[in-house]
């Protein structure tokens, strides 16, 4: 019986972070796939506050919230560190991770959910956020430097999900001419060992997000 | 070489208070710089170009932004005194989880409880009280969330005390009556000099809130 369990869904980009971190550190674990429309009693027991995935259970004790889980993994399994030893660099990585979740992700999601002029405006906002990431990548292969680090794992969803969004809506956010470094990072990150082998199936993601977009657009239909 | 520590802050900000408390707990000398948020200094814009917000901790010329991240930085650098996080990774994860919970819930819900009306107000107030109750359960029988001493959850949460009396008045509830355990925790925190000296004047906070409500057309 594995002492590490990960509760996740097949498509959650937040849960993917945990998959990457565990595999990069070569930690054996069991996966429990959740159906969010019918959450298991175990999930509700392990994450009673937010009732969400991902949740990591290690020796029977649960940890929730993806960044909290990442830090727990980092502190428990010290091989292949995701964070620098330097406190200022650690703070910077955490800041970029937070920026990704608080600004980049919502702005791209807003653009994805809309159409026409609203989408155009959304894309402009998303690009303003992405400019900071582009700047941060100057002289670096990854946000973590030579190797994949905490910020790469946090932002990693961009490398695949943005492509999925493009396919579904034909909106272009990370264009090569405008974001050469970010475009290159997407490719390098996506093709890295471990990352490459663990993307959810592209066609399934396209189908899922197509349905989500349609549902969101319907909500906006004027009366 | 002596450490040079600067804190860019704004006196009523509960996020700034967090850092003031942490720096005081660890006995770190620093220069406090008050920012005018309507006229942000070049130093602030240069130190936090992404968010352009306070608080910003500048240590030997290097900036650290976002209050919870700065708390962790302070704990990692000045690790010889008054630890804000426990040693054990699991206990650390629980502390970080609850500090994150405070960030996600308390500020927004408290603000909503005092700046909305009708159903929106009721919902915000109810959720706010549920959050306080969850925190009470987490506190348990410990004097502080950090155990015998202030931890990152205490430091993240107690700054909102200046705003609690505002939330209570406009939200129409009493923390003292409905959450006596939480109230006792507040009192214990206020006995700490690092906390009492870092909190802004409550009357002045009240005035700010009356102003906000006026601007929202609620008075």
Core attributes:
heterodimer, A: 223 residues, alpha+beta, Glutaredoxin, Glutathione S-transferase Yfyf (Class Pi), Chain A, domain 2, 2 domains, four-stranded mixed beta sheet, 4 strands, globular, B: 219 residues, 58% helix, 8% strand
Short description:
Chain A: Residues 86-209 form the GST C-terminal domain. Chain A: Residues 2-81 form the GST N-terminal domain. The complex is a heterodimer of chains A (223) and B (219). Helices cover 57% and strands 8% of the residues of chain A.
List the helices and strands and how they pair.
The complex is a heterodimer of chains A (223) and B (219).
Chain A (H helix, E strand, L loop, with lengths): L3 E5 L4 H12 L5 E4 L7 H6 L8 E4 L2 E4 L1 H11 L10 H27 L2 H21 L13 H6 L1 H13 L10 H12 L10 H18 L4
Parallel strand pairs in A: 1-2
Antiparallel strand pairs in A: 1-3, 3-4
Chain B lengths: L4 E5 L4 H12 L5 E4 L7 H6 L8 E4 L2 E4 L1 H11 L11 H27 L2 H22 L12 H6 L3 H11 L3 H4 L1 H11 L2 H4 L5 H14 L4
Parallel strand pairs in B: 1-2
Antiparallel strand pairs in B: 1-3, 3-4
Helix pairs in contact in B: 1-3, 4-5, 4-7, 7-11
Strand order of the largest sheet of chain B: 2-1-3-4
Number of domain units of chain A: 2
Unreliable residue runs of chain B? none
What is the overall pLDDT average of chain A? 95
Count of alpha and pi helical runs of chain A: 9
Give the uncertain stretches of chain A in residue-range form. none
Q: How far apart are the termini of chain A?
A: 55 Å
Question: Which fold name corresponds to the CATH topology of the largest domain in chain A?
Answer: Glutathione S-transferase Yfyf (Class Pi), Chain A, domain 2
Strand content of chain A: 5-15%
How many DSSP helices of chain B? 11
The pLDDT mean of chain B sits at 93
Rg on CA atoms of chain B, Å: 17 Å
CATH class of the largest domain in chain A: Mainly Alpha
Walk me through this protein's architecture:
The complex is a heterodimer of chains A (223) and B (219). By secondary structure, chain A is an alpha+beta fold. Chain A has two domains: 4-76, Glutaredoxin; 87-215, Up-down Bundle (Glutathione S-transferase Yfyf (Class Pi), Chain A, domain 2), CATH 1.20.1050. Chain A is 57% helix and 8% strand. Chain A is built from nine helices and four strands, in the order E-H-E-H-E-E-H-H-H-H-H-H-H. Chain A has helices spanning 13-24, 41-46, 66-76, 87-113, 116-136, 150-155, 157-169, 180-191, 202-219; strands at residues 4-8, 30-33, 55-58, 61-64. Chain A has a four-stranded mixed beta sheet with strand order 2-1-3-4, covered by helices on one side. In chain A, helix 1 (13-24) packs parallel to helix 3 and helix 4 (87-113) runs antiparallel to helix 5 (116-136). Chain A is globular. Chain A starts with a strand and ends with a helix. Chain B is of the alpha+beta class. In chain B, strands 2-1-3-4 form a four-stranded mixed beta sheet. In chain B, helix 1 (14-25) runs parallel beside helix 3 (67-77) and helix 4 packs antiparallel against helix 5. The N and C termini of chain B lie far apart (54 Å). The A-B interface holds A 49, 58, 61, 63-65, 67-69, 71-72, 75-76, 87-88, 90-91, 94-95, 98-99, 132 and B 49-51, 59, 62, 64-66, 69-70, 72-73, 76-77, 89-90, 92-94, 96-97, 100-101, 134.
């Amino acid at each position: 019986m594995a002492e590490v369990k990960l509760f996740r869904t097949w498509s959650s980009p937040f849960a993917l972070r945990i998959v990457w971190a565990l595999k990069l550190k070569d930690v054996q674990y069991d996966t429990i796939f959740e159906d969010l429309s019918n959450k298991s009693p175990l999930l509700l027991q392990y994450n009673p506050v937010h009732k969400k995935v991902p949740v990591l259970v290690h020796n029977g004790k649960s940890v929730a919230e993806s960044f909290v889980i990442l830090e727990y993994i980092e502190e428990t399994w010290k091989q292949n560190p995701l964070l620098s030893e330097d406190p200022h660099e650690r703070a910077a990585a955490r800041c970029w991770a937070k920026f990704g979740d608080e600004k980049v992700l919502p702005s791209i999601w807003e653009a994805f959910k809309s159409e026409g002029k609203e989408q155009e405006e959304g894309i402009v906002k998303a690009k303003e956020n992405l400019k900071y990431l582009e700047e941060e990548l100057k002289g670096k292969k990854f946000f973590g430097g030579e190797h994949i680090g905490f910020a790469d794992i946090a932002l990693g969803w961009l490398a695949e999900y943005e492509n999925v969004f493009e396919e579904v809506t034909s909106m272009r956010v990370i264009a090569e001419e405008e974001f050469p470094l970010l475009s290159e990072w997407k490719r390098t990150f996506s093709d890295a060992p471990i990352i490459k082998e663990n993307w959810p199936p592209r066609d399934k993601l396209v189908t899922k997000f197509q349905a989500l977009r349609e549902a969101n657009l319907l909500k906006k239909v004027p009366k | 070489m002596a450490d040079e520590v600067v804190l860019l802050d704004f006196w009523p900000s509960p996020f700034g208070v967090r850092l003031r408390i942490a720096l005081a707990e660890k006995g770190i000398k620093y220069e406090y710089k008050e920012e005018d948020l309507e006229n942000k200094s070049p130093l602030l814009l240069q130190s936090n170009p992404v968010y352009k917000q306070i608080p910003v901790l500048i240590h030997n010329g290097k900036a650290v932004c976002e209050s919870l991240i700065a708390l962790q930085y302070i704990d990692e650098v000045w690790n010889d005194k008054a630890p804000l996080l426990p040693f054990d990774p699991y206990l650390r994860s629980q502390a970080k989880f609850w500090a994150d919970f405070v960030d996600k819930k308390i500020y927004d819900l408290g603000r909503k409880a005092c700046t909305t009306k009708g159903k929106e107000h009721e919902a915000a107030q109810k959720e706010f009280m549920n959050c306080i109750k969850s925190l009470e359960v987490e506190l348990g029988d410990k004097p502080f969330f950090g155990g015998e001493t202030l931890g990152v959850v205490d430091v993240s949460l107690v700054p909102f005390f200046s705003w609690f009396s505002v939330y209570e008045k406009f939200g129409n509830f009493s923390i003292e009556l409905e959450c006596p355990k939480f109230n006792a925790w507040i009192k214990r925190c206020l006995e700490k000099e690092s906390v009492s000296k870092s909190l802004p004047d409550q009357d002045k906070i009240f005035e700010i809130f009356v102003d906000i409500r006026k601007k929202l057309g609620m008075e």
